[in-house]
Design a protein that fits this description.
Layout lengths: L1 H18 L12 H13 L5 E3 L4 E7 L4 E9 L5 E3 L1 H14 L4 E5 L2 E9 L7
Antiparallel strand pairs: 1-4, 2-3, 3-6, 5-6
């Protein structure tokens, strides 16, 4: 009986995580390992971390040699100003790369983290 209780508790959480993975577009393979490093780099160098005003979004794009682009976005959804720590930012974007084959997004504490792997010609990520 305890197994059913645990399963009933975990299923909604699993569904929520999966709902944030994108289902269309190219896969980042074989660039996954590079993208994991870039996720932390764009936060550590301040491109998508630091001080945010209400509604502000920061975007970092990294062009790869195969005419594709890794796009990392962070948006503060709350009111007022917010400081987004580089370590937390890097960990959240790393999780999007690691957990979602075609990119993904999550919102944590009113901060939206997005990773998209896209052909350079695709304007959908803009």
């Amino acid at each position: 009986m305890q197994f059913q209780t645990v399963l009933a508790f975990l299923l909604p959480a699993i569904a929520t995580v999966n709902a944030d993975c994108f289902t269309t577009g190219p896969s980042w393979n074989p660039n996954r390992e590079m993208a994991k490093g870039w996720a932390r780099d764009v936060c550590n160098d301040g491109r998508v971390s630091g001080n945010f005003a209400s509604g502000q979004e920061k975007v970092a794009c990294i062009q790869m040699r195969d005419q594709t682009m890794a796009v990392f976005k962070v948006r503060w959804l709350g009111a007022g100003n917010r400081f987004i720590d580089a370590t937390d930012c890097g960990n959240r974007l790393f999780n999007e790369v690691n957990g979602c084959e075609k990119g993904g997004a999550s919102t944590v504490d009113r901060i939206r983290f997005v990773y998209v792997f896209s052909p350079i010609s695709n304007a959908a990520w803009r």
